[in-house]
Amino acid sequence: MEEATLTGEEAGRPQRRDARENREALLAVAKRLFAEQGVEATSMAEIAREAGVGQGTLYRHFADKAAVCQGLIGEDLDAFQERVG
To answer: Which residues does UniProt assign to the signal peptide (predicted)?
Structure first.
């Protein structure tokens, strides 16, 4: 069942541009909502709605809220590594 949580890129296929943009939008919305109301108070449905995508799109990128958090941590780690070289 773990395969279902992989995105196209993680599964060895390049992601389409719109898929990448959707993922970025989902993470940006999640980051804002988590900051405003906390992780526990934010639902996956709310993240999808605020990002302007269907819940199916959200779940194609992230299996659950923990996966969204991991995505945010990964973004921050990538940004940190770029800064420190």
So the answer is: none
**Contacts for 8 with CB less than 8 Å, ≥ 6 apart:** 14, 15, 16, 19
All structural domains of the chain: 2-84 (1.10.357.10)
3-state secondary structure of 47: helix
**Residue 69 Cα distances to 13, 16, 17, 48, angstroms:** 23, 22, 22, 15
Residue 10 has pLDDT above 60, yes or no: no
